[in-house]
Amino acid sequence: MTALCIFFALVSFGAVSSARMIVHESRPAAPSGFVSQGAAPANNLLTLRFALAPNNLAGLQTKLASVSTPGSPEFRKWLSKDDVKSFVQPSAQTVAAFNAFASANGVKPTVISPNGDWMSLTLPVSQANMLFAANFEVFTHPSSPQKLTRTLSVSLPSQLVGHVDVISPTTDFVNPNPHLTPWTNVNLAKRGPAASCNTSDASVSRECPRAWIPTAPATQPNNALLVTGYVDNWAQSADLSTFLSLLRPDIPSNTTFSLLTIDNGTNPQGPNDGSFEANLDIQYTMGIATGVATTFLSVGGPPNIPGFAQSLLDTTTFLDGIDNPPTVMTTSYGSGESDFGISLATKICNGYMALGARGISVLTGSGDGGVRGNHDGGSICGNNTFFPVFPGTCPYATAVGSTIGFRPEVAVNFTGGGFSNFFPAPSYQSVPIASFLKTIPSDFQGIFNTSGRGIPDLALQGWNFRIIVGGEEELESGTSASSPTFAAIIALINDQLLAAGKPVLGFLNPWLYSTASTAFNDITIGHNSGFECAASSVAFDAAVGWDALTGWGSPKFDDLLAAALA
Ligand SMILES: *[C@@H]1O[C@H](CO)[C@@H](O)[C@H](O)[C@H]1NC(C)=O
Ligand SMILES: *[C@@H]1O[C@H](CO)[C@@H](O)[C@H](O)[C@H]1NC(C)=O
Ligand SMILES: *[C@@H]1O[C@H](CO)[C@@H](O)[C@H](O)[C@H]1NC(C)=O
Ligand SMILES: *[C@@H]1O[C@H](CO)[C@@H](O)[C@H](O)[C@H]1NC(C)=O
Ligand SMILES: *[C@@H]1O[C@H](CO)[C@@H](O)[C@H](O)[C@H]1NC(C)=O
Ligand SMILES: *[C@@H]1O[C@H](CO)[C@@H](O)[C@H](O)[C@H]1NC(C)=O
């Protein structure tokens, strides 16, 4: 009887304090640059998204390892939309727990993803503060007029623990200006003759193929390349046309891209609407992946959605719902990993895992601040704590760094590289990372996470790409030049695989770190101290084999193609 009494007592205690709160995520302060303008008005409506726990994430992980690892009997047997859904959709208990919580609190949940793993609730700030032990404030950042409603801490009522993986936006503070090019390159000198490929300052064009890339048009349908566009970066078809006339006169200058939009994204074509980022990305995918159908995905920004992190997320959920997804996707945007917070970064990364399993190669630049985040300069230069850039740190993305010059080809100072604090090194990487860590001097002062996933996975040219923006020729640099170029290379290889009746490359990394690892020019010179930080500031040095500046090095097209067809 005594035992029974205690049992009842516990149950009633649990019911009375159904609001017992477990801290889900918190940060001591907003990242530098963000300034609080005070408490968010209590009656403002807030739309919060909730990631429901997948029913079998470990199953998807195992399946992906099996379909992406050379030698496996299931190698490159990519999954269908419904196959992926069977792993990532939440269990009935999880959905029931969430719905019960919402209904007990008088809010109506909306399912916002095709796999049913995201729900949203719209509620007043005061209620959100109460239900999630939060303190929503309004923040501003000097690089954007946007006001962000965020909290430094968010908790889950105990009955949702294990059912909800992410509440967003809450503790994510991503720089509103996340494109991957060093800040100062925006005003580079205009137009100049293409320099000789033998100088270390070679303007990159097809005149300078370090890795010879074929110009013959691709022939296979169902091999679409997707270029993502975020935070109001728009691609111009008139500029593409001018670019093709200048650098690819052999292909029709009216060749264009198709447009997809989500989150009320747009792609205006007015004389001042083009951005260097989107035009760089479109021009160096379409200018190299001859004949590959290319789509520009314009993802709307605030006020339609809260910010860049949610844009990355919405890209993955959008593609989850498509029957015939693109075969390669390139993203030239990123921000310091810690800005995202671990739960949101993990959820986005798991979204890439699902895309990789569908047979999509997910590529991104590795960051443009060397060892110090996305953009270096100013007070950051004296900071000897290294911080890596997401989404490249996701082990299901392929992170592309940048090189410069041809004889020798070296790591450029801004090439993002380092080690994740969120994601442990995946097994495909552990041996090359261990070798690289042995090359670091014993008195090395940099502080980084030796157990984390290392980036980049590879690198290629990323300096002085000739592009057209608003009718004007410009030179742009950054890992946002390198990632689209590698996406084009992958698309051309996929074309040949499809022509040979073989499946596309899909999730690349286990292949890149095994049978393809010799298809790269090893880059052994360079120091990634950043574009603005003094070359003497602490950073990694390139080394023989994989390193945290250039990964395996720059791709040799023919060797990579041979490895793909093998
Ligand atoms: C670059 O230098 C190499 C070796 O010095 C030479 O063979 C080649 O012709 C040069 N190429 C150009 C474009 O100047
Ligand atoms: C491009 O121009 C050619 C020749 O003028 C024309 O035949 C073709 O239909 C055009 N293609 C597109 C996509 O507009
Ligand atoms: C897009 O715009 C429509 C019409 O203005 C609006 O109803 C909808 O909520 C918007 N979508 C997003 C994601 O903001
Ligand atoms: C260095 O940067 C990290 C990441 O932004 C930050 O947490 C840390 O406080 C900085 N350290 C110094 C000494 O500025
Ligand atoms: C280092 O990375 C591991 C994951 O590999 C993580 O668990 C750990 O918290 C990280 N350490 C720090 C100090 O961020
Ligand atoms: C970084 O490299 C670029 C390209 O070589 C160069 O223009 C720039 O001056 C370098 N930055 C520093 C601080 O040395």
TrEMBL record:
<dbReference type="Pfam" id="PF09286">
    <property type="entry name" value="Pro-kuma_activ"/>
</dbReference>
<keyword id="KW-0378">Hydrolase</keyword>
<dbReference type="GO" id="GO:0005576">
    <property type="term" value="C:extracellular region"/>
</dbReference>
<feature type="signal peptide">
    <location>
        <begin position="1"/>
        <end position="18"/>
    </location>
</feature>
<keyword id="KW-0720">Serine protease</keyword>
<dbReference type="GO" id="GO:0046872">
    <property type="term" value="F:metal ion binding"/>
</dbReference>
<feature type="active site" description="Charge relay system">
    <location>
        <position position="480"/>
    </location>
</feature>
<feature type="binding site">
    <location>
        <position position="547"/>
    </location>
    <ligand>
        <name>Ca(2+)</name>
    </ligand>
</feature>
<feature type="active site" description="Charge relay system">
    <location>
        <position position="281"/>
    </location>
</feature>
<keyword id="KW-0645">Protease</keyword>
<keyword id="KW-0106">Calcium</keyword>
<feature type="binding site">
    <location>
        <position position="522"/>
    </location>
    <ligand>
        <name>Ca(2+)</name>
    </ligand>
</feature>
<protein>
    <submittedName>
        <fullName>Subtilisin-like protein</fullName>
    </submittedName>
</protein>
<dbReference type="InterPro" id="IPR015366">
    <property type="entry name" value="S53_propep"/>
</dbReference>
<dbReference type="InterPro" id="IPR050819">
    <property type="entry name" value="Tripeptidyl-peptidase_I"/>
</dbReference>
<feature type="domain" description="Peptidase S53">
    <location>
        <begin position="203"/>
        <end position="566"/>
    </location>
</feature>
<feature type="active site" description="Charge relay system">
    <location>
        <position position="277"/>
    </location>
</feature>
<keyword id="KW-0732">Signal</keyword>
<dbReference type="InterPro" id="IPR023828">
    <property type="entry name" value="Peptidase_S8_Ser-AS"/>
</dbReference>
<feature type="binding site">
    <location>
        <position position="545"/>
    </location>
    <ligand>
        <name>Ca(2+)</name>
    </ligand>
</feature>
<keyword id="KW-0479">Metal-binding</keyword>
<keyword id="KW-0865">Zymogen</keyword>
<feature type="binding site">
    <location>
        <position position="523"/>
    </location>
    <ligand>
        <name>Ca(2+)</name>
    </ligand>
</feature>
<dbReference type="GO" id="GO:0008240">
    <property type="term" value="F:tripeptidyl-peptidase activity"/>
</dbReference>
<dbReference type="GO" id="GO:0006508">
    <property type="term" value="P:proteolysis"/>
</dbReference>
<dbReference type="InterPro" id="IPR036852">
    <property type="entry name" value="Peptidase_S8/S53_dom_sf"/>
</dbReference>
<dbReference type="GO" id="GO:0004252">
    <property type="term" value="F:serine-type endopeptidase activity"/>
</dbReference>
<dbReference type="InterPro" id="IPR030400">
    <property type="entry name" value="Sedolisin_dom"/>
</dbReference>
